[in-house]
Specification:
Radius of gyration: 13 Å
Strand order of the largest sheet: 1-2
Largest sheet: 2 strands, antiparallel
Structural class: mainly alpha
Mean pLDDT: 93
Low-confidence stretches: none
Number of helices: 4
């Protein structure tokens, strides 16, 4: 299964909000949707992106790399929109 842009948007929301609940609020979805999308992205990439500890989490090295890539993708899209 290929990684989807919507899954990377979940990753960005997690990065910005610091929690599943905050990401869900930002994206206007249920917490379970955030968790499901994260699991789908981890499955597509074949790696764990977060280490979960109850309601808190920390990024793995691969997770931090994925967040950086997602930020670059978002900036590229925004730049394209501005230039068109």
């Amino acid at each position: 299964m290929a990684a989807a842009w919507d899954d990377f948007k979940v990753l960005l929301a997690l990065s910005r909000g610091g929690s599943v609940a905050a990401a869900a609020r930002e994206l206007q979805v249920d917490n379970s949707t955030v968790s499901r999308r994260l699991a789908a992205l981890e499955d597509a990439l074949g790696t764990q992106l977060l280490v979960r500890n109850g309601r808190e989490f920390s990024w793995t090295a691969d997770g931090r790399t994925a967040v950086d890539a997602a930020q670059a993708m978002e900036e590229a899209v925004a730049g394209t929109v501005r230039s068109v």
